[in-house]
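Section 5.1 Outputs to date
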Amino acid sequence: MTVILLALMMVLVPAVGVPHEELLQDTLKSMVVSFFALAAAIAFFWPYRLNGFRFRLHWIQLLPTGLLIYALGSMAWSHTYLAAVESVRWFVFSLILFLGLNSLTLKRINWLAWGIHIGAVLASLWATWQFWFDWPYFAQGPAPASSFLNRNFLAEFLVCTLPYSVLLLTRLQDKTSVMLLTFSLGWNIVALMMTGTRSALIGLVILLILLPAITLLYRRQCVSSGWKTPHFAGFIAVLAITVLGLGSLPTAHHQLVKEFGSVNAIERAFSRTMSIAQTQEYSSGSIAVRLQLWRATAQMIAAHPIAGVGAGAWEVQIPLYQDHDTQKETDFYAHSEFLQLLAEYGLMGWFFIALLLLYLCRSALKTWTDQSTQGQREAPLRAFTLASLLVLMVVSGSEFPWRMASTGAMFALSLAVLAASDARLGTSYQPWIHCKSTHVITALCLTAVCIGQAIYIAQQAIECESKLVRASKLALSIAASGTSQDPRWNAPKTQMLELLQQGIAINPHYRKLTPLAADAMLTWGDWKNATWVWESVLASRPYIVGMLANAARGHIQAKEFDLAQDRLNRALQIQPEAASLASVQIMLWSRSGHIAQAMQQAQSLLDSGFLDYDLLQSAYYLGTRHQNPALAIQALKLGIQTWPHRAVDGWLKLGHIYASAQVQDETQALQAYQEAINACSPEFRSSVLAMITPNYRARISLP
């Protein structure tokens, strides 16, 4: 029953998804993995509650258990919440590994392989519908993502399932079933190609060489008998026709058509793989972003080589190591499981990676050299499992699949398959541990407690994400309306704030959604509540320079100058050379009475060529209120050049300055007013004309 539950888990996790945006896809998938793992634990322990039993341990179990213990310990000195999340992740991983080690026999592995394959087929089905028919059921980001949030997550999972699908091919006796399975395998490959995920496509190329070689090497262990040349030709033809035929169908997905045209899966896979050689990918593309993240992570590793920064704390600490001109989080993950593990876990991370790679290499050598009868029986299974782990390591170098529910469960199960095989071969030190019935009952009780805790966490996660997503969507809708100051929005604004407060009260560490609502609030001038949201993020992520700058601006608006200076000082400690922070300092000086310092700094920055919207606004404010029209004119002209969509307002303000008693330049004033009329759309021309000084209005030429 334990293996059946684990197999069902691998069917459902990739197949199920959320049809709306009020719950993240991987949150649901993590719940499914957790509940199935705990249910499998109940099924495993229950038969032994009266008489006890003996179970095996494998030294590979020490690796995730060590990370679990480290994560629990780092709760005391690092980020408590994120370390707790990491400890839960490694607990579930260790539990799946333990259950698989003690329940996966050579025969039962077929059930697990079928679960993995069927889950991949269902996920591929949703993805192909999205690609071909623009099927909109699952909420997602970059498409086609199937029931996953991101197409990269789907691709990383699919490429790891392919070796298990081929393993099933070698274990089927009926040739019709082999052909049907071959068709579904081709379908999965086409879905993988549709994603265009380069790391997964590289893994696919590796498997296209490795899987046929494994099959040929261990062809005598294939179950199907009576294979002749036409059968092999039919197998190859079915696979080729499926991939080439389905891969030639063009996409109808609106987003993909808009970005790439009506491409098919083969074209997308080829173009994305070839893009690795394009130089712009390393200067402004996604590879450039990853290189930036890896450099910052390498600096973090060098700064904390022994203990690391704490489990899960990479996202907290990364702003301290980003480039001086990066004020926001480039991403929430390092896009390299290995680098992030080293940064967070220090020496424990080094031990994990070194021992894991050593174990995989040792397993590969044992698989290759063991000529015993049992060794030859185990060899195909071990080889295909190692192939799956190999491509997982490949995608882990530039992505974060261990943190995703589907691929994380695959990782644990693949290690369990190898460990169980080791037990049957007797190749590793695996002591038998005897459990009395009292121990089993204790394990059952603890598992029941874990299930209760999982139910509570799931309910809290669902409620929190729902409230925060609804609040963010409300805020963005109000901001996008163009009439955010209209009284009819008062009730939705109140509802949005209530949802934010309730969501943050449940989980004050959720920083992915709340800043969206805060930024939207600025469109209707609600600096007070926007600042409260920014401060809630900073309580958990104190080093995000852009967030510190926003909070400082908010406190300036509220005339809380001491708080504003504190936030600004914290930002300057992280990025002392950031010119954008200097513009915040100018704003603070100008509002708190230090006018001379503010004007001198503003003029210096404008002359240096630095352009920042807040700087230009502050320079205009200083120039118009403190008898420095030249500074205001310079700021307005730079603003018109940099943000042409705001040109109408800039030209009007320039006209007012030139027409003022202080400047009295009639020619320049008339020219500025004329430019304002020329720049505005016809429907707003009358309202803009009404804002022009009366003695100039009659002299304006209408287009």
